[in-house]
Structures are given as structure tokens and as C-alpha cells.
């Protein structure tokens, strides 16, 4: 076998190879003989078909397989000899000009980039700081109360926070428009489920009262036939209901999983859950900055083959997520190209982190994995059950190991970078979810 390597780009390579036709002929003969031992043909017992007849029927198949095997072997030997890390699959191109008695071809492929870890000392990482106190516990309990809101009929005009039940009809140019009418329609004023102007018009009306008003839809309204259009609504309030929140008492504590109804235990559980969530969100914010720092300090090109594979995987993940939400993805086009930018980032980070973990020995230690699994299990009613579930299968434990490795990378990079602490508000950290 003869080979010759050529560099086509930063990561693209071409190897020209040739293999002896005599060797291929030997392999074809060997394959036909093996076939002859088991092949079945009418008029012959198994294994007794003459080799000449077997060749007449199967030589084309045997030659195709022999050439494929020879090409694969030649390529494998060549990349091993030249110590090349191939990314993806090679594109095999036959060559017309070949020496007599040889089969010549080219393999065009990509190689993994050489990752040389850069200096992180000039990168900046801001570590959010938040101590969970009584105010954060109170705010979270208030959210839990609102989630258990009940409504009672109120003999007064509707106000912010009330639930109203209405009949309404909307007309554009005097004609009812599609989706603009309903009966016994409930909504909470101020919850944002209706347009602000509609809510304002209903506010102040009591049960049995009606109102006719003009309203202009926003320019970016989802129904294009109504976007920017002025319509007229007729509204009749059927019922006004005031929100009633449960008291912070034993009944609420029991409803939230505290068996004996002890409110102090409820507060302790809320605080513990908040501390875990705050820790998780702070770690996520630091991780995002660390990943940006790694990309900045380690600019690399990545193989197109890896980007395409990652894009396809992300598209498949998106389709599975849609299916889990009850959607039929056969009617929803999900293009791998939509995920190219995300795929590039993920591939780059994967290669950089792999080199960093190897160079700095940031592998997951068993005790770290155990600590992580036990921490995740604390939010479950029976923590030991989740621990057993993780340790029952290597694949599940591998997920926890991957998280630990990421945490090790985040900690190591934070120590190398210019890391500062910055106080953050509860609402800011939680994305206003607890407001």
C-alpha cells in the first residue's frame, strides 16, 4: 500500500492511497470460497455448489465487499501511521489515473483540532452572592399561598386581582370577528391573560353591568387580521369574585407536605429548598461566564462533521421535547440548521473542556459524585430511593459524573480568572419568578 497526505485546510486532509489488485483478487477468491460452503442453489446440496457457479452469481458482490474492506483497511492503517485523529467519516473518491495492477483512491476527511490551553488570568468572572433570609422565605410562602388561591363571590365592582366572569362580543366594522366572542368567560384582572386595555375597561363594573368600548389591538398582535386594528367590544359582567388566600397555618403546612402541620417546619423546608435553588442558580450563572471565558481564551476551529452531528442531535432532542408536550412532530419541520450556532458552541466547549480535564486532572472523584447525588436527593420525600436509583445503572451515574466534572472545571477556571463577588437581589436571581 502506498499513501500520500495533503493538507486542504485548517482541519481538512486528503490521503491518496493505492492497493494491489492482486491482493483484492485474492480476497475475492477467499470470499467466494467461504460463500460456497453455505450457499444454497436449486439442484445442489448446501455446500456442494461448484465454485464456478458461485462466482458467476456472487463475484460482483464479493468484489464490491473486498474493495470496500481494502479501502477501509488502507485508510485505517494510514491514519494510524500518521497519528491522525479523524473527525466524522471520510469521503472516498476513486482516482482514474492509477499504476497498472493497482486501485488508487483518495480519502478526504477532517481531523480534530490541536487544543492548546490559553491564559485565563485576564478573564473576569462575577460570582453572585445571596443569603436566604426570612424575607425570601416569606416571599416564597406568599407565592405558595397565591398558587392555592380560591375565589368567592363579591357584591361590588371588579378590582385588580378579582376574577370576573363575562360575556363579550367584538365587532370590526360592525361585523363579529372570529374569536372575538364568548360566554361565561373567566379571567383574573391583572394576571395578563387579557390585553391591558380590555382589563381596564372591565375594571369597575359590578355583576349585571354592561359596557361598550373601543379598543385598538397592538401592532404586533398574534392575529394578523386584528394587529393595529380598532374594534368595538360589548361586555356584560356576570360575576365578580374576590381572591381569598389561605392563611399560613397548620392546614397550609399539611397541604404543602408537612404531615404534622407545624408551620415552623414548613418555613425550614422552604428555606432549605430555597438555599438549594439559590445555589443552583448561582452556579449556573458562574458556569455560563466560565464557558464564555474558555471560548475567549481558547479560540479553535472545529470540524464541520462534528457540528453537523451535534446539530442533528439537538434537532432530535427538540423533536422529542415537542412530543413529550403532546405535539405530533411529523407535522412540525425541525431543521438541524436551526441549531448550528448552538452546536458550534457545544462542540468547541466539549473539545476545550476535554483537554482541560485531562491536562489538570479534573476528573470526577467517587466521593464528589456521591455528595452530588445525595444533595439532589434531599428535595425528595425518600432521598435514599433516588440515591439507589442513580447507583442502579452506570448510565445514570454517568450523568452525575458529568455534572461533577463541569463543576470541577468551573471551580478551577474561577480560581484562575479574576473572580469578584457581587450582591444580587432575590427577584433578580430568580428571574422575578418569585415576585
UniProtKB/TrEMBL annotation:
Pfam (any one): Trigger_N
GO molecular function terms listed in the Swiss-Prot or TrEMBL record: peptidyl-prolyl cis-trans isomerase activity
Domain PPIase FKBP-type residue range list: 161-246
Reactions it catalyzes: [protein]-peptidylproline (omega=180) = [protein]-peptidylproline (omega=0)
Predominant subcellular localization, coarse grouping: cytoplasm
InterPro entries associated with the record: PPIase_dom_sf (IPR046357), PPIase_FKBP_dom (IPR001179), Trig_fac (IPR005215), Trigger_fac_C (IPR008880), Trigger_fac_C_sf (IPR037041), Trigger_fac_ribosome-bd_bac (IPR008881), Trigger_fac_ribosome-bd_sf (IPR036611), Trigger_fact/SurA_dom_sf (IPR027304)
EC number: 5.2.1.8
Keyword annotations of the record: Cell cycle, Cell division, Chaperone, Cytoplasm, Isomerase, Rotamase
Location(s) in or outside the cell: Cytoplasm
SUPFAM superfamilies: FKBP-like, Triger factor/SurA peptide-binding domain-like, Trigger factor ribosome-binding domain
Keyword Cytoplasm part of the UniProt annotation: yes
Taxonomy, superkingdom: Bacteria
UniProt record similarity statement: Belongs to the FKBP-type PPIase family. Tig subfamily.
Domain observations: Consists of 3 domains; the N-terminus binds the ribosome, the middle domain has PPIase activity, while the C-terminus has intrinsic chaperone activity on its own.
Protein function: Involved in protein export. Acts as a chaperone by maintaining the newly synthesized protein in an open conformation. Functions as a peptidyl-prolyl cis-trans isomerase.
This protein's name: Trigger factor
Organism encoding this protein: Aromatoleum toluolicum
Lineage of source species: Bacteria, Pseudomonadati, Pseudomonadota, Betaproteobacteria, Rhodocyclales
Amino acid at each position: 500500500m502506498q499513501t500520500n497526505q495533503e493538507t486542504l485546510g485548517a482541519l481538512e486532509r486528503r490521503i491518496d492511497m493505492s492497493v494491489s489488485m492482486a491482493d483484492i483478487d485474492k480476497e475475492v477468491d477467499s470470499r467466494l470460497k467461504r460463500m460456497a460452503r453455505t450457499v444454497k442453489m436449486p439442484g445442489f446440496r448446501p455446500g456442494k455448489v461448484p465454485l464456478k457457479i458461485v462466482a458467476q452469481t456472487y463475484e460482483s458482490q464479493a468484489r464490491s465487499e473486498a474493495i470496500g474492506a481494502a479501502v477501509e483497511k488502507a485508510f485505517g492503517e494510514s491514519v494510524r501511521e500518521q497519528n491522525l485523529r479523524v473527525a466524522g467519516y471520510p469521503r472516498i473518491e476513486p482516482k482514474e489515473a492509477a499504476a497498472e495492477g493497482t486501485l488508487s483512491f483518495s480519502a478526504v476527511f477532517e481531523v480534530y483540532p490541536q487544543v492548546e490551553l490559553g491564559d485565563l488570568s485576564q478573564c473576569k468572572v462575577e460570582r453572585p452572592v445571596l443569603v436566604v433570609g426570612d424575607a425570601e422565605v416569606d416571599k416564597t410562602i406568599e407565592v405558595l399561598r397565591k398558587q392555592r388561591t380560591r375565589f368567592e363571590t363579591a357584591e361590588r365592582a371588579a378590582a385588580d386581582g378579582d376574577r370576573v366572569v363575562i360575556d363579550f362580543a367584538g365587532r370590526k366594522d360592525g361585523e363579529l370577528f372570529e374569536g372575538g366572542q364568548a360566554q361565561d368567560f373567566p379571567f383574573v384582572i391583572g394576571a395578563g391573560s387579557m390585553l391591558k386595555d380590555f382589563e381596564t375597561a372591565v375594571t369597575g363594573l359590578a355583576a349585571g353591568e354592561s359596557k361598550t368600548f373601543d379598543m385598538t389591538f397592538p401592532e404586533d398582535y398574534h392575529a394578523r387580521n386584528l394587529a393595529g386594528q380598532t374594534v368595538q367590544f360589548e361586555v356584560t359582567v356576570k360575576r365578580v369574585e374576590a381572591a381569598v388566600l389561605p392563611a399560613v397555618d397548620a392546614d397550609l403546612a399539611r397541604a404543602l407536605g408537612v404531615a404534622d402541620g407545624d408551620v415552623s417546619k414548613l418555613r425550614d423546608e422552604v428555606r432549605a429548598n430555597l438555599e438549594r435553588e439559590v445555589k443552583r442558580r448561582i452556579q449556573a450563572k458562574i458556569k455560563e461566564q466560565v464557558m464564555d471565558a474558555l471560548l475567549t481564551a481558547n479560540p479553535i476551529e472545529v470540524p464541520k462533521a462534528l457540528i453537523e452531528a451535534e446539530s442533528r442531535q439537538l434537532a432530535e432532542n427538540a423533536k422529542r421535547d415537542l412530543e413529550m408536550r403532546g405535539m405530533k412532530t411529523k407535522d412540525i419541520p425541525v431543521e438541524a440548521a436551526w441549531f448550528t450556532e448552538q452546536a458550534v458552541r457545544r462542540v468547541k466547549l466539549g473539545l476545550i473542556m476535554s483537554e482541560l480535564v485531562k491536562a489538570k486532572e479534573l476528573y470526577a472523584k467517587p466521593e464528589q459524585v456521591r455528595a452530588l447525588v445525595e444533595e439532589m436527593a434531599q428535595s425528595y420525600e425518600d432521598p435514599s430511593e433516588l440515591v439507589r436509583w442513580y447507583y442502579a445503572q452506570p448510565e445514570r451515574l454517568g450523568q452525575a459524573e458529568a455534572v461533577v466534572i463541569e463543576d470541577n472545571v468551573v471551580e478551577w477556571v474561577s480560581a484562575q480568572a479574576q473572580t469578584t463577588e457581587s450582591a444580587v437581589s432575590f427577584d433578580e436571581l430568580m428571574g422575578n419568578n418569585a415576585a
